[in-house]
Design a protein that fits this description.
about 400 residues; mainly beta; Immunoglobulin-like; Thrombin, subunit H; Pdz3 Domain; 3 domains; 6-stranded antiparallel barrel; 4 helices; globular
Length: about 400
C-alpha cells in the first residue's frame, strides 16, 4: 500500500512539473500591445509579472496595464521570487482605421511548390512505380529547389524533371518548418515524359471581405482567417500575393447543415495592392490603388481594446450587391478575453432581418466583414456555425491590427 502511495505521489509531482513546463513555454518572449492594454499571465499557477526596471515602483501581479508607448521589458517570476524569463513588450499607440466591408479577390503564390498529393506512375515498362517512396517527402511539404536550382512554379518543376532524362535528382524541401534533402529518380512514361509521382500547386485564389484600411501606413487586413490549401488543409506559406477587385456573380443563401457563399470573379479585375502575409488571423498587405477600395475617410474610427468590447448589440459592415457596404445588426453573445491562440475571439449572432433574408446569416465570402460597436472597430467575422448560419465567430480587432503593424 505504501509503495502505491509513493508511486502515485511521484506521478502527481511529474504531472505538476510537466504542467509548469508547458505554462512557461507558452509565455511569449516578445509581444505587441497597445497603450492601455493589460498583459496577463496564468494566475492559477502563481506566475507574476512586473517591470524589470527596478526604478519603477509597482508590485508583482498576474497582470499589468501599460500606458507608455515604446519598448519595455517585463520580468516574469513564479511565486514572486523565482525568476522565469524577461518578456520584451512593444507598446503601440492607440490607432485608428477605416472599416471597409468590400468583397475583394485574393491571389496567393506559394514560397516554393506545395505537395498536395501523390500517385503511382505507369512507366514505359508498363509497370506501376512510386518514385517518391522512402524519400521522406509528404503531402503538405514544400519543394524549394532541385539540384540547387530554385523552383518557383509548377511549370519550372515540370521542365526540370523532364530535362533530367531520368537522372537522379537532389530535392530540397520544407517539412514541419525544417529544411530537408532527398533524392528521387523520375520515371519515364509511355508519353516520353518524366514524372516524380507528386501532385503539386504553386498558387491559390478566392474571394473574401476587406476588414480595414490603415491610412497611417496604407496597409489593410482582410478575411480574419488564413487561406489554407484545399487538399492539405495547411496554411499556405506565401512568397507574394495580389489583392484585386471582384465582381459578385451570385449569393447562395445559407441553411442549416449547408453553408451559403458569395460567388465572385477575379478575372479581368483591377489591382488593389500586394499581399505579404497569410496568417491564421487573416491576410495583410499594402494598398497601392486606394481608389479601387472606395474608401470613406470620414468613417475613420479607433480600434477598441478587447476589454472595451461588451456583450450585446453591434453591427457588421458588408457589401452584398456590389455597391456601397451596409451595416447590419448583430448580437455579441460571448467574449473570450484570454484567447490569443485562434480567431474565435467572440461568438456572434446575426439579428438583422434584411441580412437574414438575403443570406440566411453568415456565409462564405463574408469572412473579414468588420464588426463595429459604440463607434469603434472591434473585430471581423471569421466563422459560421454550419448547423446554424445565423451564428458564428469573430476575431478581435486588436489582434488583426497587430498583425498589420508587423507588415510595415
Amino acid at each position: 500500500m505504501k509503495r502505491k502511495i509513493t508511486q502515485l505521489t511521484i506521478i502527481i509531482i511529474l504531472i505538476i512539473i510537466y504542467s509548469y513546463t508547458l505554462a512557461i513555454e507558452a509565455i511569449p518572449n516578445n509581444i505587441i500591445i497597445f497603450e492601455g492594454e493589460t498583459i496577463k499571465v496564468n494566475n492559477y499557477l502563481g506566475f507574476k509579472i512586473n517591470p524589470s526596471d527596478e526604478t519603477i515602483e509597482t508590485s508583482a501581479s498576474s497582470s499589468q496595464t501599460i500606458n507608455n508607448v515604446g519598448k519595455t521589458t517585463m520580468k516574469v517570476s513564479l511565486f514572486d521570487n523565482i525568476f522565469i524569463k524577461n518578456m520584451e513588450v512593444d507598446v503601440l499607440p492607440r490607432s485608428k482605421v477605416i472599416p471597409i466591408g468590400t468583397v475583394a479577390g485574393v491571389k496567393l503564390y506559394t514560397s516554393g511548390i506545395l505537395v498536395v498529393g501523390m500517385s503511382e506512375i505507369e512507366g514505359i515498362d508498363n509497370k506501376k512505380h512510386k518514385p517518391y517512396a522512402n524519400s521522406g517527402i509528404e503531402e503538405g511539404d514544400t519543394i524549394i529547389s532541385i539540384d540547387d536550382t530554385k523552383i518557383s512554379s509548377t511549370q519550372e518543376l515540370i521542365n526540370t524533371v523532364n530535362s533530367s532524362k531520368g537522372k537522379n535528382l537532389s530535392i530540397q524541401y520544407m517539412h514541419d518548418n525544417a529544411t530537408a534533402t532527398c533524392s528521387i529518380t523520375p520515371v519515364k512514361t509511355n508519353n516520353n515524359e518524366y514524372k516524380l509521382g507528386l501532385w503539386v500547386r504553386d498558387s491559390a485564389a478566392g474571394v473574401g471581405t476587406v476588414s480595414f484600411y490603415d491610412p497611417s501606413n496604407k496597409t489593410f487586413g482582410a478575411l480574419g482567417h488564413g487561406i489554407t490549401d484545399i487538399d492539405t488543409e495547411e496554411l499556405i506559406n506565401i512568397e507574394s500575393g495580389e489583392f484585386v477587385t471582384t465582381r459578385i456573380l451570385n449569393i447562395t443563401k445559407g441553411e442549416e447543415g449547408s453553408p451559403g457563399k458569395i460567388q465572385g470573379t477575379i478575372e479581368n479585375q483591377n489591382n488593389i495592392g500586394s499581399i505579404y502575409k497569410n496568417t491564421k488571423f487573416g491576410i495583410y498587405g499594402t494598398v497601392e490603388n486606394t481608389s479601387e477600395l472606395d474608401i470613406d475617410y470620414s468613417k475613420e474610427m479607433e480600434v477598441a481594446l478587447r476589454e472595451e468590447i461588451k456583450e450585446g448589440k453591434a453591427t457588421i459592415l458588408c457589401n452584398l450587391d456590389g455597391n456601397t457596404p451596409k451595416e447590419y445588426e448583430i448580437e455579441i453573445e460571448k467574449i473570450y478575453l484570454e484567447n490569443n491562440y485562434d480567431n474565435k475571439s467572440m461568438k456572434i449572432k446575426v439579428t438583422d432581418e434584411e441580412l437574414i433574408n438575403k443570406t440566411g446569416g453568415i456565409i462564405q465570402g463574408m469572412s473579414g466583414s468588420p464588426i463595429i460597436q459604440n463607434g469603434k472597430f472591434i473585430g471581423a467575422v471569421t466563422h459560421v456555425l454550419i448547423n446554424n448560419p445565423k451564428e458564428g465567430y469573430g476575431v478581435f480587432g486588436d489582434i488583426m491590427l497587430k498583425q498589420s503593424k508587423e507588415v510595415s
